Batch of 2 targets.
Target 1
Amino acid sequence: QKEVEQDPGPLSVPEGAIVSLNCTYSNSAFQYFMWYRQYSRKGPELLMYTYSSGNKEDGRFTAQVDKSSKYISLFIRDSQPSDSATYLCAMSGQGGGADGLTFGKGTHLIIQP
Amino acid sequence: EAQVTQNPRYLITVTGKKLTVTCSQNMNHEYMSWYRQDPGLGLRQIYYSMNVEVTDKGDVPEGYKVSRKEKRNFPLILESPSPNQTSLYFCASSSSRGPYEQYFGPGTRLTVT
């Protein structure tokens, strides 16, 4: 079953706020979890990925995976107007992404200056 | 520079006129995919390929064809385009080894009148 749920937003927050973006999924076979950022009229670009459960931090970004709850999150600290974009979660199973990743529909994020 | 290229970037055509969108990657990736992106529907996979001469249907293959004669190229063919194929199309590639993150091209905006 290919199903990933993601709130489409838009989510509007003031500059400097902490942003929390989330996805839930139903397929327990998913092992790789990714976040993509997509600016308007551009292709998605990989932001972060994690394998299995746990946290991963990269600068202002932190990705969390809770496999027991089938829930993943992306936190953005000290948000900037340049973070305004659509954020897509994506995931694949242990067998690999031969049939591609399963994507959420994306959350449109707006950071107000 | 590692990249996925697509051409053309913009295309306006009429119903029934065959067209091809080219895709090329320079990362020696085994996996390649085509997606379409529509408002409210997110990214949907059209076709994917695991290697040369190996292709398979994704979630929305009707009205599309693909071929993979060379590892680097994966063209998308619309033999008789219809207005419901008006969309934003992305080609993507990934390695056959984890974590299977996909690298996306810049997109092709197709309008069928």
Target 2
Amino acid sequence: ETGVTQTPRHLVMGMTNKKSLKCEQHLGHNAMYWYKQSAKKPLELMFVYSLEERVENNSVPSRFSPECPNSSHLFLHLHTLQPEDSALYLCASSQEGGVHEQYFGPGTRLTVT
Amino acid sequence: GDSVTQMEGPVTLSEEAFLTINCTYTATGYPSLFWYVQYPGEGLQLLLKATKADDKGSNKGFEATYRKETTSFHLEKGSVQVSDSAVYFCALRGGGGADGLTFGKGTHLIIQP
């Protein structure tokens, strides 16, 4: 595997389910990010982890819970979601310590029924 | 806070036409600027970047120049192809630290043969 991978690519879940999204980066980066992409809206930054510590949480509801066990893996745990949470969830990684671009995974298309 | 404004489209052009997608930004300090492209069903790919005033980023025939005086980073290509059909995102990143990107809403580009 190369770059940034995300699983699953598609997920349908009910409002009472609990599921997790997984992201893995194979680039040796030390920062990882979760973004939400909804139709007709700009990409929204949700969480930032640098050196496995959370450094930013943009007022995301508590039904979204991130986890970063090491610099290569990032999870987004989901529970009691709402239909308006249906979106494409994108993971990204970058190397901190300078001006470095972020590399994105293909995303997980989430539908909440 | 930081913000990015870009034309939303869709922008429809004929093959070999000249392309301009406008992007303006508001930010404190000296941000880095990026253009990302998203093909159907995929994540975002970095197209080009510029890190300081008057820098020109270029890739695959696309160019953009960092204009601090007009706070702009317009994307141009001299002759577009059908394969350039995609959504293009302008983004900025503030100085220093593990910061997420601030994105525009994206411009849907459609190239007709």
